[in-house]
Write a structure and sequence with these properties.
Elements: E1 8-9, H1 15-24, H2 34-39, H3 41-44, E2 47-51, E3 54-61, E4 64-67, H4 76-87, E5 95-99, H5 100-109, E6 116-117, E7 123-127, H6 128-133, H7 140-152, E8 155-159, H8 165-179, H9 185-199, E9 207-213, E10 216-227, E11 230-238, H10 245-257, E12 263-265, H11 273-281, E13 286-288, E14 290-293
Parallel strand pairs: 11-12
Antiparallel strand pairs: 1-2, 2-3, 3-4, 5-14, 6-14, 7-12, 7-13, 8-9, 9-10, 10-11
Helix pairs in contact: 8-9
Amino acid sequence: MLSIDDFTPVTLEDKHIFDKHYLKYPPVHSDYVFTTMISWMEYANYKFTFLNDNLIIMTDVKNSRRFRPPIGKYNKDIFNQVMTFAKKESSDYPFGLINRETKDWLSRNYPRLELTPNRDYFDYVYLSSDLAELPGSTYGKIRNRLNKFTRNYAYTTECISEKNMNDLKTFLKRWCLWKDCASDPLLENEKKAIMYSMAHFFELELSGIVIRIDGNIEAIAVYEKMNPDTVVVHYEKGSPDYDGIYKAINAETAKLVQKESTYINREPDMGLPGLRKAKISYRPHHMVEVFHVTRQNIII
């Protein structure tokens, strides 16, 4: 039977293990991507184990353990083990981040299981071509803001490389001063995640671009391929001194990404009203819905 001793912390050296497994079972939600897990380790304490070629992921946030559905071929015995183990935990929602396909399978095989949508963690997925071209009246306001930015500022773009990494880190330190990261636990943890990703940018096989104005980096975007038709944008940051710069970095990223991927996953809004409004304004093609189960509702 599954034991807590079976789980080991995710380390950078485990990337090849996840890469190999994800070739067979590509992630559809951003929180399953290896970069997300390793970069947010200090906050979420990701651990993993395998059961009969099924990957089991656990998080431990403030001593609250939560488990993900097994990643592999659907196997009721393995689901029984994971859910039974999750039910023993003290977390109110010990079994979650369940995608729609898995939710439908669970509903057929566990008809008494009550699954609740977790809207704050729905991923926003857009057509790359929409974000690159901003077509039609739907994107009129965004297009106007972008046009105003391009009229007001002469800017250049370049791919993230070893040559501009020090400038990029300097920009991120400035960004955290602007945002006062130290005063907000979420921003402070995001700062740690970004800095980790930048320190291991090439080992994680990330891609990205920067915008320079007057020689200084004033916006960045960091992304990677998460499945055959989708790129996930992990980070997008811009200077508050340039109105419309977020519109520019978004469009410039999409112009590059559309050459290789149909979709861009821009991760969830985590229930933040301003972020939700911004993400909705770009008209997502679809959402990656996720669900969770309360401890009391785990009925096997």
